[in-house]
Amino acid sequence: MPADSRRDRLERLTNLMLVLLDTPTPLSLREITERVDGYPDTKESARQAFERDKKALRDLGIPVTNVPINAEEQVGYVVRAEDYYLPEIDLDEAEAQALAFAVAAVQLGGNAGRDALSTLGHSTGTRLDAPVAVLPSVPALGPVHEALRENALLRFGYRGREREVEPYGLTFRQAAWYLVAKDRTAGVGDGGEMRTFRVDRFESAPVVGVAKAFEPPADLDLGAQIQLLPFGAEPGQGLPVAELEVDARLARQVASLVPETVIAEWGSDGGVSLRLPVGDDQAFVSWVAGLGDTAVVTAPVALRQAVIDRLVSMATPTELETELVEQPAGGEGTLEPPAKSAPPRVPPPSGLIAGERLRRLLAVLVHLARVGEGEIGEIARRFDMDREELVHDLELAACCGVPPYTPDQLIELIVDGDHVSAFGLGHLAKPRRLTPEEGFALAAAAKALCEVAGADEEGALRSALSKLEAVLGESHFSVDVAQPEFLHELQDAVERHERVEIEYFSSAATTPTTREVDPYQVVLREGRWYLDGWCHLVDDLRRFQVDRVQSVRAVGVSFEPPGVLDESLAGPDAFIGGPDSVRARLAFPVGSELGVEQVALSPLEHMPDGRLATDVLVGDVEGWFGRLLLRLGPGTEVLSPAELRDAGARAAQRALRRYGVG
User: Fold this and answer.
1) To 5 degrees, how large is the angle CA 149–CA 150–CA 152?
2) The CATH number of the domain where 501 resides is what?
3) Which of 351, 382, 586, 657 has the most C-beta neighbours closer than 10 Å?
């Protein structure tokens, strides 16, 4: 869209919002097009343009309300003040800075957190070399958070049917967001049943109902409701109790999934013994098989034998009909990594451009209404804008207002060189309400950072979060951040720029290796802490999972960290691959897809034989990849490259040796 057309759209959107906010009674479409310049002359074209504008305003969180009216068109439109304006959140400077740091330190994807700060009129200019945490962003989280705050019913598709639930709480644990709710569509009678839903598995966009539709239980323990293990059960129900030994390679990772009450003993070698009540034998066998040779069931005999039988069924290499397999593009027939190409740049739609510019302009005007005047450069930095674009939008805003567009009805801005003055901004002197996505992003960033030890020593962030919840409503969610044993020692080494010696279990190793590492950053990604740094053992960049670190020792050598981190370390994903990574295509049984969906590089496809197929990136054939194949179960097959076809069989054979078989 040409620049002048985008300018016209922004001006029309601004005037439309001002007119709908100013009107004492709802306006029909005819009245709107008469009062707001820029709409087409024909009725149908004007309606289409208005519908686009109405959607753009609603996407910004500006509530355009439809009201029945006694007129030919029967529907009028208004922006009610009580729906538009955000109640005052009296943040002091320390609290505002703490929120800005939290938004910069906790990456959630997108710009919702920065947009929220901008809407509140606070600076978005905080910059960090690396985030403290990266949390997965799911589009459904905004509406879910809104429903939680409003005690509103929530409707969405899940596992093949429509659900209507009373949302009680939201928790982030082990790389995923979980909603605890009463499912009104489940169980017998009208009471419904408590359920836990994984938000990234919603099958339709959630729809928020009316507020105050139910009263959540006051004594609900969210943590106790979330069962991460598919076979989990409460003890004392007459169910079998599996005795499981997990060696040091995955001991801490497995222990983080279970209640402390099932941990029988930690061994001096770093392994752990568990006593797990088993409510689903088949799910338990699948899970234990997926631990490969890192774990062994010692009792009861029946469960031990079931795991052995599962491994035996996968220990024979499969014959691969390579000539019948359609090879993915890029020549994935070797162990060379796939070539990476940047996706084509697609310009955003014009409505989004105008809408985003309006969002920023409204935030700038709220700020100017508070301070009266300011330097162009300082305002541009405050709202992360280009100086020329800011001047352009301010000059446009000076032409906007409400009919009859006389000087007293226009926004009064005076741009004089590097200085801008504002007078009588009226309706724009208070910020608009945050969108559900903005409110969630602010609260999630603050809650996540509060869980990181030492991140809020002055208490300003918790104070800011308390004020937010007092105005926006209680969030009813938590961010469960693991604290591995050597996390703080590694964080201190990063801060001091001091080389450390670590003992580390790589995914496939049976014994730890000793490495000297220059620690660049420690970041929470996908629910786990990772250390990124220069490994002197391999003389290259490496990423280490902190819960696999067995010891840390300072070696008394300082280093100079890189000015800019390598691109591979700056992305949001935990797995960064490496020079030996390869793209593999898998086929696996229907019902096993939950085990692969988080690492899938391509959509799951249905194969003619009834199985599913997808691609994964493999950097550790004998460790992680072999265990993945065991978890997916019998019927799983590596379609390409041929060199990996026996990885699952080898993993099964290694696991069987732990049981004294083979």
Assistant:
1) 120
2) 2.30.30
3) 586
Residues 565 and 587 in one domain: no
Secondary structure letter of residue 644 according to DSSP: G
Q: What is the pLDDT of residue 273?
A: 95
Contact criterion met (CB below 8 Å) for 14 and 397: yes
Domain extent at residue 534: 487-570
Contacts of 444 (CB under 8 A, 6+ apart): 106, 108, 135, 141, 172, 477, 479
Q: Hey, how many other C-beta atoms are within 10 angstroms of the C-beta on 197? A: 24
Structural domain contains residue 298: no
The CA-based angle 453-458-464, given to 5 degrees, is: 95
Q: Which of 84, 136, 128, 130 is nearest to 110 (CA)?
A: 136
Q: Which residues of the chain have pLDDT under 50?
A: 1-4, 319-352
* CA nearest to 361, candidates 2, 659, 18: 18
| Spatial distance between the Cα atoms of 147 and 153, rounded to a whole number of angstroms | 7
* CATH number for 333: 3.30.70.240
Domain total in the chain: 3
**Predicted TM-score (pTM) above 0.85:** no
Tokens of 8: 């016209």
Tell me if 221 is assigned to some domain: no
Angle between the N-to-C axes of helices 112-120 and 350-371, in degrees from 0 to 180, rounded to the nearest 10:
30
Cα 551 to Cα 249, 263, 516, 532, 547: the distances in Å are: 13, 22, 12, 16, 10
Which tokens belong to 322?
A: 């390579």
